[in-house]
Amino acid sequence: AQKITQTQPGMFVQEKEAVTLDCTYDTSDPSYGLFWYKQPSSGEMIFLIYQGSYDQQNATEGRYSLNFQKARKSANLVISASQLGDSAMYFCAMREGDTGGFKTIFGAGTRLFVKA
Amino acid sequence: EAGVTQFPSHSVIEKGQTVTLRCDPISGHDNLYWYRRVMGKEIKFLLHFVKESKQDESGMPNNRFLAERTGGTYSTLKVQPAELEDSGVYFCASSRLAGGLSYEQYFGPGTRLTVT
Questions:
Q1: Mutate to test the interface with A, among B101, B112, B113 (most CBs of A within 10 A)
Q2: pLDDT tens, position by position, for chain A (116 residues)?
Q3: Residues with Cβ within 8 Å of residue B65, at least 6 apart in sequence
Q4: Does A44 touch chain B (CB under 8 A)?
């Protein structure tokens, strides 16, 4: 069964507007971490934000925030005030604390297009 | 500090040939990971080295894939003989730590492998 699901293969957003990229996950491990990575056209994977399963507050990093809804098992990425440079592929990922070892599990990604 | 580097950036080979991918982690990072993304799908974990030892190779698809990390520095991933389904982007990542959940993995730009 897929552990990380990103249902939006592609998304468009107008420059300066906010956009939400969806991510749902599946785990029975009570201890896990959730990540978002950005992959621009140059290919490298850039770490954006991290949320631990026991964290009480939603993680924020500059214009990025993670809308963590534990009961729904969702970890959506919100990008505020989109910029043209935000156009990229975005991957949601998870590590499981007790059962997953050190591997990171990724979703299939969402390609974001920011329009001028 | 130099990032994770991978060589080559692109490789096109014929079915049945051998290809060797190389990854140079960030200096001082004992942990090295290989991942693969087949066209349009999620990025999948292949294996994890701690120094020169294979910590977890549960994601290696079959015995046509051989990963080594002699001396605990750079790593190679050899595919022999290559099949069409091996086409994809192979990512390498490294980290200083590998305990807990929130440690950051630094990714290289990937090697795009095309098997024809």
A1: B101
A2: 669 999 999 999 999 999 999 999 999 888 899 999 999 988 888 999 999 999 989 999 999 999 999 999 999 999 999 999 999 999 999 988 766 666 789 999 999 999 99
A3: B46, B77, B78, B79
A4: yes
Number of C-alpha atoms within 13 angstroms, CB side, residue B28? 5
- Pairwise CA distance, residues B78 & A36, whole Å: 29
Euclidean distance between CA atoms B22 and A70, whole angstroms: 39
Instruction: Establish if B41 touches chain A: CB-CB under 8 angstroms.
Output: yes
Tens of pLDDT, residue by residue over B64-84, are 999 999 888 999 999 999 999
Contact criterion met (CB below 8 Å) for A20 and A67: yes
> Looking at the complex, does the CB of residue A54 fall below 8 Å from at least one CB of chain B?
no
What's the gap in Å between the CA of A80 and the closest CA on chain B?
A: 23
Chain A residue numbers touching B91 (CB-CB < 8 A): 45
CA–CA distance, A32 with A14 (Å, rounded to integer): 33
- What is the distance in angstroms between the CA of the first residue and the CA of the last residue of chain B? 37
Which residue in the set A33, A103, A108 is minimally distant from B45, CB to CB? A103
Question: How many CB atoms neighbour CB A65 within 10 A?
Answer: 19
